[in-house]
Write a sequence for this structure.
């Protein structure tokens, strides 16, 4: 809790940094700014300078002229990536300027401008003045504009999705770099003193006790009475806020546990003298016991799949509630009770949909492969992304695992950074499991050994292995033995092979991209899994074929990673049926 407070202060003192978004925006009084936004394409980022585009400067007199204006410009739809909206932006990775105007009548409420996500950098201007910036494409951020809003307002956002070595992800990554204002934009009104944030979940390991906290924001935040009620369960609990406006919660509760079989959620209502907010929250416990994962104290096998936040058939970023339903329904259709959201926090619609559908989730920050862990400021950037992810989704019962990274190379800077992130995640949320996906395992012929030392700080170990694709089998899968230095659950967080849907042929030649080859890899993988006593879950790479410009094999890939069990149009490949049967035999 103290850490959370310091973050806020840190962000505040770095000036013009965006704030972590208030929790549960959907439960507040909002005005949507979604829709058509005017735009200017600026490949040279030329407008990003003094008196630049953000100022919306106009000629002062007849001698003067200004070489930018939005007045006659066309529009892009927000939310949504810009690459799929204009052919000339298909592979575009630089600056696009967005403008949206809105009228506002002050009414004594506080006013916040909240972005669901902007990929990758956002510089935000209001009425010609810069109000702040945000780095990171997959988490929400906000600015308080109570004192800045006028009767007629103009928001300008410089959106830049240029890759960089110091970025998260870094310059190279195996997915499509969709840029833009990719998620909802809202104006949020609150009372002067309001319920800014809260954490209401079962206490770690206690399915009969709720624990958490409520944080008020406002001059009168200290010494306030906060009431948390769960009407359906006859619960009403009151607590007072301390000097920092924080009330700690702990109370007995008899609640039906949330699970994939019964995704039960309760209306939880929080009130103070001046504010009230509510949302649907599920309650469940998640723990490990040696190499076993326990959901509500019962052993669970995580029947998973990896999903990118993309609607392949539309060649676009997924961003709506129906997109979330579409993606999760396809996972459930394959028999999944678990999804790894790769490799970044997906939209809030996705995690709330998982809550209602009963799908367990692994959520991850995009610390993918070649992160510059030793570059100045990197730890703070990583920590901010982790904080923003946990801040947004900590009340989601579906989320059982926070993941810190994917396939990063062991070494002092990386190890140190991940250990710090693990400690931070645990301090922010002691109720969930902490993981990372590793690919540095030791192969000696048919023995595979897990020894990544960062695992000591984790609850669950994820391993990405591509036997049969990037690494040829040295024997049938059933001959492989896995060992580990850690008595912890292993999730095979990635495995698989490529195939072009509808393309058939030999099962023994990888470079034919046949369904039969992919199917055979899955058969061997599943045979291997039978011999891994500490295996607690599996996540095939990947549910749908997805776009990745680095995939340039012109017959079969053409800019697509073809490791999907489904094509981008949802066509089932032979391997899909192998996984479906495997998960069905696993039973509930
Ligand atoms: C990696 C990585 C994925 C990537 C996949 C692949 O393991 O984590 O992001 O897409 O392998 O190469 O297909």
């Amino acid at each position: 809790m103290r850490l959370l407070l310091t973050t806020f202060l840190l962000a505040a003192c770095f000036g013009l940094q965006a704030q972590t978004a208030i929790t549960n925006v959907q439960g507040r009084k909002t005005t949507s700014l979604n829709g058509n936004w005017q735009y200017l394409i600026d490949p040279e980022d030329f407008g990003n300078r003094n008196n630049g585009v953000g100022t919306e400067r106009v000629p002062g007199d007849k001698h003067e002229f200004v070489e930018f204006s939005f007045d006659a410009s066309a529009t892009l739809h927000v939310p949504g990536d810009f690459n799929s909206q204009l052919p000339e932006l298909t592979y575009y990775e630089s600056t696009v300027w967005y403008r949206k105007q809105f009228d506002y009548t002050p009414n004594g409420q506080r006013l916040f401008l909240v972005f669901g996500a902007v990929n990758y950098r956002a510089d935000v201007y209001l009425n010609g003045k810069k109000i702040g910036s945000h780095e990171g494409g997959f988490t929400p951020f906000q600015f308080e504009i109570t004192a800045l809003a006028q009767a007629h307002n103009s928001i300008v956002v410089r959106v830049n999705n240029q890759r960089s070595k110091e970025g998260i992800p870094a310059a190279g990554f195996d997915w499509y770099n969709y840029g833009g204002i990719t998620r909802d934009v809202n104006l949020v009104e609150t009372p002067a003193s309001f319920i800014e944030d809260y954490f209401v979940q079962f206490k770690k390991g206690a399915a009969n006790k709720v624990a958490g906290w409520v944080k008020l924001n406002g001059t009168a935040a200290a010494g306030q009475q906060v009431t948390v009620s769960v009407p359906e369960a006859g619960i009403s609990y009151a607590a007072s806020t301390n000097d920092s406006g924080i009330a700690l919660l702990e109370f007995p509760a008899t609640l039906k546990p949330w699970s994939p079989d019964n995704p039960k959620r309760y209306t939880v209502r929080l009130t103070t003298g001046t504010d009230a907010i509510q949302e649907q929250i599920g309650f469940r416990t998640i723990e490990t016991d040696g190499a076993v994962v326990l959901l509500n104290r019962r052993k669970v096998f995580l029947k998973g799949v990896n999903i990118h936040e993309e609607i392949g058939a539309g060649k676009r970023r997924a961003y709506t509630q129906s997109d979330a339903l579409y993606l999760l329904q396809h996972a459930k259709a394959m028999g999944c009770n678990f999804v790894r959201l790769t490799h970044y926090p997906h939209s809030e619609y996705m995690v709330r949909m998982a809550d209602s559908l009963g799908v367990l989730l692994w959520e991850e920050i995009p610390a993918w492969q070649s992160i510059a862990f030793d570059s100045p400021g990197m730890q703070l950037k990583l920590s901010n992304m982790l904080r923003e992810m946990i801040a947004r989704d900590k009340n989601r019962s579906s989320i059982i695992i926070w993941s810190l990274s994917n396939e990063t190379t062991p070494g002092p800077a990386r190890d140190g950074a991940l250990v710090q992130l693990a400690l931070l995640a645990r301090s922010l949320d002691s109720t969930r499991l902490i993981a990372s996906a590793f690919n540095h395992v030791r192969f000696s012929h048919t023995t595979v050994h897990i020894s990544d030392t960062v695992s000591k700080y984790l609850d669950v170990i994820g391993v990405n292995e591509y036997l049969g694709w990037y690494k040829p089998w040295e024997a049938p899968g059933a001959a492989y033995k896995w060992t580990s230095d850690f008595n912890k659950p292993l999730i095979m967080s990635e495995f698989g092979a490529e195939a072009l849907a509808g393309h058939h042929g030999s099962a023994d030649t990888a470079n034919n991209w046949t369904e039969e080859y992919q199917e055979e890899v899955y058969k061997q993988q599943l045979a291997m899994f039978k011999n891994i006593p500490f295996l607690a879950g599996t996540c095939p790479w990947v549910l749908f074929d997805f776009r990745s410009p680095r995939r340039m094999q012109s017959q079969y890939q053409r800019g697509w990673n073809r490791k999907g069990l489904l094509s981008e149009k949802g066509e089932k490949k032979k391997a899909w049926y192998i996984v479906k049967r495997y998960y069905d035999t696993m039973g509930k």
In short: The pocket of alpha-D-glucopyranuronic acid is lined by residues 174, 343, 406-407, 464, 494, 541, 561, 563 (CB under 6 Å). The two ends are 37 Å apart (CA to CA). Confidence is low (pLDDT under 50) at residues 1-14. The first strand starts at residue 19 and ends at 20.
